[in-house]
Amino acid sequence: MKVIVPASICLADEPVSIRVEQLRPGAAVSITAELLDLERVRWRSAGQFFANAAGWIDTNTFGAENGTYDGVDPWGLAWSMQPADPVSTASGPTVPSLIPESPQEWMVVVTTDARERQEAVLRRTWLAPGVATHEVNDGGLRGVFYEPPTSKVDVAVMVVAGSGGGVSTSLAPLLASHGIPTLALAWFNYRDLPKSLARIGLEYFREGARWIRQRGGQKRLVVVGISRGSEAVALSAAHFDGFADALVLYVPSHVVESGYDETTGKAAAAWTLAGRPLDFVPIGEKAAAMLERLGADSVKRYAPVYLEKWAQEGVEDQHGIPIEAICAPTLLLSAGNDALWPSWLGAARLLARAKAANPSARVTHISFAGAGHAISRPGEVASLSTVNHHPLLRHSVALGGVPRVNAHAALAALREVLLYVRKIAAGSEETPCNTH
């Protein structure tokens, strides 16, 4: 038996390539992959394969049986990893604790029905060798700048994470690994930034966009917002000329939602503009009653609450995100089975509002059927991606979807973003109303 794994480090969005040769035709081959994370939690995936008549198998093209995933899935051994010891999805980890700067090391164990056994080490990463990591601590700005050794396109990207705060730790480094200078902008719950999602000045995001333009020196800028981060990005683009040359909004809402002030334990304005808080959608009596009933659930599904809130009369007129004021072309990426909030509806309403104001508006909506809220995490373990222990809310929330669909939707969304960024770099999406 001969086990072949890539000699070099593979990017996390690449298929898992394990080939086993010199087998007896029809031999049963079991492959187990194990990863030890920073918290000393062991994550494990497995599959059983059967050698073909030529005496070999390949995880890229052969179907797996009796393991953590079934069928032909080149990424199956990656997304289907599970904690080796049972954990509670209500309180335990839902993804391995890893950092982009350190490659994952998998211990791959291959055994056959003839009691043969071999081990190999497979290395995967979100950060390609040669990409420099710079901690951003410039005035009030915080984040991480991922700088590839050479830029493959004349465009930079800024990624604004969602309601958990911090920075993007998978999407941003992967974009940089594909040759795009990328700033993962932190805006709260990071180092010395505010701990609450409350009264965040939109001017902060404008300063982040200016920083990456000046630092990177690229001709164009694409700003990516994720979940609540997409709200900040869209509002900034609507209020500030020249904010971006294009936007990508992952799992967005179409209205301005509230923030949460940890010091008071109450809802507060999420955003301010020129020091004045922006109005947000009121919760309403029905939605408040639904929210109260969620208190008894160990994993809270918020999508029905948002549907009730968004159905209130006049909500979009009074609190809608003014996408018609955004000059930049915009790509909307939504999840068709989003259990956190109905991003498929939010994106559809944004598109409808843009087209109603301007039928030729350059707004595109791609919805990933069956996927949950976690489509902005390409290459991550997805076996528990239907749930997340929210760092701000301090309880578990339902994200929706099913693991395999979530994993492949996140990879497909990344491919769409890379294609879109390259179109922007090539000038195929002009933004004549934006001046830098």
Please, could you describe this protein's structure?
The structure is a single chain. This protein is of the alpha/beta class and about 425 residues long. It folds into two domains: about 1-125, Immunoglobulin-like (Sandwich), CATH 2.60.40; about 130-425, Alpha/Beta hydrolase fold, catalytic domain (Rossmann fold, 3-Layer(aba) Sandwich). Helices cover about 25% and strands about 30% of the residues. The protein is built from nine helices and 25 strands. The strands form six sheets. The protein has an eight-stranded mixed sheet with strand order 10-11-13-12-15-16-22-23, with helices on both faces. It has a six-stranded mixed sheet with strand order 2-9-8-4-5-7. A three-stranded antiparallel sheet has the order 1-3-6, with no helix packed on it. α5 packs antiparallel against α6. The longest helix is centred in the C-terminal third of the chain and has 24 residues, at about 405-425. The termini are far apart. The model has no long low-confidence stretch (mean pLDDT about 95).
Please describe the structure with a list of short key phrases separated by commas or semicolons.
single chain, 436 residues, alpha/beta, Immunoglobulin-like, Rossmann fold, 2 domains, 6-stranded mixed β-sheet, 9 helices, 25 strands, 23% helix, 28% strand
Concise synopsis of the structure shown:
By secondary structure, this protein is of the alpha/beta class. It has nine helices and 25 strands.
